Amino acid sequence: MKKILISVFFLSFFSSGFSYAQSSQIKKPNILFIAVDDLRSELGHFGNSQIQTPNLDQLASSAVSFTNHFVHVPTCGASRAAMLTGMRPRRKAELSNLIMQNEFPKKAENEIPETFIHHLRRNGYYTVGIGKISHSADGYVYEYEEEVSDQRELPYSWDELLFDAGKWETGWNAFFAYADGENRQSMNKQVKPYEAGEVNDLGYPDGLTTQLAISKLNELKDNEEPFFLGIGLFKPHLPFTSPKKYWEMYDEESIPIALNPTKPKNVSESSLMPSGEFNQYALGEEHPDLDKVASEAYAKKIKHAYYAAASYSDAQVGLILAELKALDLEKNTIVIVWGDHGWHLGEQQIWGKHTLFENALKSALIIKIPGKEEKARLENSIVESVDIYPTLLELTGIETPYELDGESLVSLIDQGKTTENQTAYSYFKQGITVRNERYRLTKYFRNQEPTIELYDHQTDPLETINIAAENPEIVKRLMPLLENGNTGLYDN
What we know:
This protein is α/β, with parallel strands linked by helices. It has helices at residues 9-15, 19-23, 54-60, 76-85, 99-103, 116-122, 171-175, 205-220, 244-247, 276-279, 296-326, 358-361, 388-396, 410-415, 472-484; strands spanning 30-36, 64-66, 69-70, 126-131, 160-162, 194-197, 227-233, 240-243, 333-339, 344-345, 351-352, 365-368, 377-379, 383-384, 424-428, 431-435, 439-444, 452-456. A hairpin with a 2-residue loop joins strand 15 and strand 16 (431-435).
């Protein structure tokens, strides 16, 4: 969405008609933010999938669920950095998973906050992080097989940073956990990319994270300060592991394979990806890539595994929200559930996320504002992850610390008001892509042709054929829109 400068928030906050604003002028609203790793925009209440997410569906019944929310980078760390700072990437380093790990701990605290969490903290919020909010699995900087360090990835954002690694002992071990206490690293990748564990919810790390979150909510309920509680759930990130009961929610044979299981036409393979992250799991029965399509049986199995893992995370969200209600906190708590990017489940012959296609860039976003339950709806407007920062500032009456790339979604949520130019920008693989209401236009800064791709979502929502060559007039018309999102990333 277009760049704006947010200002004078209390005026818009108290004149916007929010019923809770008039009854909670003394204490700002609490914020419960739940980040779900690799949760694509495919939820039960969308009605276009067999995936079962009853708790997210229940949340959406009193919230706004965005069906066209797009992230800025299709990889965890960089996507989270853009969302947390409210800024689209401007340097190639900002496309890296390690952008926060490599740069944020080295900066001194100054007038520019490292994240919106830091800004909330400087404006009276008590901030608690549990699990993966930034890129690190537990918020601390260390490599996959190293001991946990005491260096925070976000040094100034948190009053408390918590994690229960259980029998896996470290955050990164827990991130790649199997039910027996082993992990991808300890098994030298000699593991399958999925598991149906003979355990209950506490048999995997997300169950421990949920219990920790519930315990912390009970402590926070009596705080005089408003709180920001950030919770990062791992699943459905690889490996697609979850308790067996979530697998039993599905009939594998009835799960459909992707409607576009082969490479799109008229594109370079440089725009695609060989599913390397997925194929690291050496004991997978098949290793599909750009030269080999997964069998129908294996495609169903992997989708089954992903769906089960997503349903497991959904159950954890349900437990957290139930506790929020039981503690009578929901009446003054903003709830946001955010997926850090999408994931190709065989679409375009890809199993993974590192592309500039719709499946990698579109992810779940649900926002619930207390007192606005009557506005519950599916919202089809184009929105971006950088919109979260200004939205929270408007809702909390806190002024922006600098010019943000995003636009507050409050008027859209409250009154259904959309901006004239709905656009979302994303960056990766030496490319920039822009999505509007009808088209996706992508420009790659590389030698491999074609470097321009155009997809018409009115006639080809699955992005199966690049029609740029036969539609130069559309490309010409849309190119200035794309250039508006060129932050200088590929200028040198």
